[in-house]
Known about the structure:
By secondary structure, the chain is α/β, with parallel strands linked by helices. The chain has helices spanning 5-22, 27-42, 45-55, 91-94, 137-144, 168-181, 207-220, 236-246, 282-299, 314-323, 332-337, 341-355, 361-364, and strands spanning 64-66, 69-71, 75-77, 98-105, 117-120, 125-128, 153-158, 188-192, 226-230, 253-256, 278-279, 304-308, 325-330. The strands form three sheets. It has an eight-stranded parallel beta barrel, surrounded by four helices. The longest helix has 18 residues, at 5-22. Flavin mononucleotide binds next to β4, β6 and α11.
Amino acid sequence: MRDPISTRLIEAFYRSAAxxxxxxxxxxxxxxxxxAVGRVxxxxxxxxxxxxxxxxxxxxxxxxxxxxVHFENPVGLAAGFDKNAQLWNILPDVGFGFAELGSIxxxxxxxxxxxxxxxxxxxxxxxxxxxxKNDGAEAIAARLRGVRSRMPLGISAAKTNSAETSDPDAxxxxxxxxxxxxRDIAGYYTIxxxxxxxxxxxxxxxxxxxxxxxxxxxxxxxxxPVFVKLSPDLDDTQQDAVLEVLGxxxxxxxxxxxxxxxxxxxxxxxxxxxxxxxxxxxxVQQVAERQLxxxxxxxxxxxxxxxxxxxxxAEDAYRKxxxxxxxxxxxxxxxxxxxxxxxxxxxxxxxxxxxxGFKSVAEAVGVGT
Length: 369
Ligand SMILES: Cc1cc2nc3c(=O)[nH]c(=O)nc-3n(C[C@H](O)[C@H](O)[C@H](O)COP(=O)(O)O)c2cc1C
């Protein structure tokens, strides 16, 4: 299905005018500017309606229920773009079906020293070393309390990036502080155990520690579904160990995947700052899909799978769905292709589902490529 002329014009403008200009500026400053523009657009009904008219694509075939939550479409903003929950009231107009906010930590966190975000344009990837910069659970929850979101807001919880949370008990309390603060806000929770850039690494990939963390989350008895976000760098044995632990807890979904730090595996020899930060986009696509497909084969619908990593087109999103994802998310595709890509992915996805005789997203989940 061909995009309408307005979408093609925005795409051409982004590719030939906006992106060349934006890509000359510091990536973090551009990210901050986009957030500022988004906040302005979110601030009035008129600007929201205009944004919606230009960007959003709606189609009933895209509506889907996952883990008891209703999504108008399966395309979400991945964690890390709206770190401080400032864009929740414009993202549905840009076309998203949901957004994962944060990652949010128990305490406010400055993140790692700058620079901490680099582009890899020839690879359509980003090198990310933010280190969980965010305003902290209390401030973000206060910002969101009482708002009426037009789409589910996922709360991505992580442990504060500091020496104090190196102690497992302190780290677990930190995750739980996020859950407690966001009780009335979350559409779902994601427990992010795969930040590649935080003090102390990723301790909760250790099965015994993950078991303790999830027991503490279970004890919160939240009514919203809980997902766990994994690193694409886990080997098969580590993935199986994680799955075994998840089986003993109230976890309903798995987010595959976060950024990769295994530069060698994905063939990166030219990182701008070698070894620093995780890599997104085209670079992570294959490894994320490998994990997604494996998780589907192992679990066959027991968990909702959320496919993330290297989605640039409707075909990319559709492939993840056919590999087992009930929902998909992206950031890097939007940075490289422009904000109209969300509507383009949804429009293309609807066409691909119909082409193959599916009546819903759910029917296509896990059918194979
Ligand atoms: C700038 C940036 C910041 C990110 N920050 C987080 C984060 O705070 N928490 C998290 O779970 N994932 C974070 N991620 C990872 C993304 O959520 C996603 O898993 C990854 O980028 C792969 O998707 P993509 O290729 O569509 O970008 C971040 C990614 C980017 C590009």
